[in-house]
Amino acid sequence: MRFVELFAGIGGFSLGFERAGLECVGHVEIDKYAKKVLLKHWPKVKLLSDVTKVKGDEFGKVDVLCGGFPCQDISIAGNQKGLKDEEGNQTRSGLYDEIIRIAGVCRPRYIVLENVANLLNNSKWFGYVLGRLAQIGYNAEWEIIRASEVGLAQLRTRVWIVAYPVDNGYEKRLPIGTEKGQPPHGESTQDKTKNICRRWKRFSSKPLLGGGISRIPNRAHRIKCLGNSLVPQIAEFIGLQLLRRG
What we know:
This protein is an alpha/beta fold.
């Protein structure tokens, strides 16, 4: 499966998806430091800067379009403006609309999204997210998954959304979630992540950037990028489910 990562940051989706066996064919990221990280690790992958200028056909066939769209206006630590402000103007989190626009052109088999769990606490915001997917002909399923479920020493509670075309014949695919509280295929999300946890054990879950360390190059940029990134172990888990279902 070929995938493109929008709002790529330092490539959290890409790292996880590639470990699952998917092929990265494109990144879109505007932050200068994050782009340096992407070019270092994915030098042969096409990198575009401005998501608002991406047409949607630059990467050829796209099986999976993914992205952790901006959370500043959704997070409980933010301004709570949502995807549009009181005047109806697009907020930074409202750049989610660019995902919909691009998906409408490249028509991926799956759209995978990540954002803060607070998105689910406002029916207007989450209704907008699902409604826009429906407008381009996609069903959606979602699940709250925490970083602690894949072995990290933090909660980092996030909502993960998997969407797919309504006309593809899939019924109750449940790539990441559960139906009426019953684990899909006899396994819970936590059970399925155990092997992933074991494979990632050699990586430290504690960033070596705090504790008064001040001589690390680009320390502020690194902390910002880590804070904005998503958990690649969870992306790997979802990628494995997508490959399993084709």
